[in-house]
């Protein structure tokens, strides 16, 4: 569903970046509804971030170079990449 390694998921869990149901200290479960809502929120965040990047590029004169970044082409891999960046930057 997320197409990321288990180690990435472990990192997200420890940094509380992903919704999880902790069964015990060692076991966790994910509810599909929670993950889908989390992905949807990440998608909205990514769109807002791309729009901000586009506005920044317009102000900086790089608009035509970054014009290929189309908000309609946002896919799950973009969301995962941005989530990984957030986790690594935190």
Descriptive overview:
By secondary structure, the chain is mainly alpha-helical. It has one domain. It has helices spanning 6-14, 32-60, 76-89, and strands at 21-22, 28-29. A hairpin with a 5-residue loop joins strand 1 (21-22) and strand 2 (28-29). Helix 2 packs across helix 3 (76-89). The chain is elongated and about 45 Å long.
Question: What's the number of extended β-strand segments?
Answer: 2
The order of strands across the largest sheet is 1-2
- The low-confidence runs, each spanning 5 or more residues with pLDDT under 50, are none
Radius of gyration: 16 Å
Taking the sheet with the most strands, its summary is: 2 strands, antiparallel
What count of structural domains?
A: 1
Shape, please? elongated
Mean pLDDT, to the nearest integer, reads 76
Count of DSSP-assigned helices: 3
* SSE run: HEEHH
The proportion of residues in beta strands is under 5%
- Label the structural class: mainly alpha
Question: Could you provide a short overview of the structure?
Answer:
The chain is 58% helix and 4% strand.
Any chance you could write out the topology, listing elements then pairs?
Blueprint: H1 6-14, E1 21-22, E2 28-29, H2 32-60, H3 76-89
Antiparallel strand pairs: 1-2
């Amino acid at each position: 569903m997320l197409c990321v390694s288990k180690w990435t998921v472990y990192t997200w869990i420890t940094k509380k970046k992903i919704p999880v149901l902790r069964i015990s200290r060692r076991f966790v479960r994910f509810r599909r509804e929670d993950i889908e809502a989390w992905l949807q929120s990440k998608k909205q965040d990514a769109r807002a971030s791309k729009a901000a990047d586009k506005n920044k590029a317009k102000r900086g004169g790089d608009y035509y170079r970054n014009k290929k970044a189309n908000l309609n082409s946002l896919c799950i891999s973009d969301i995962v990449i941005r989530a990984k960046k957030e986790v690594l930057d935190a």
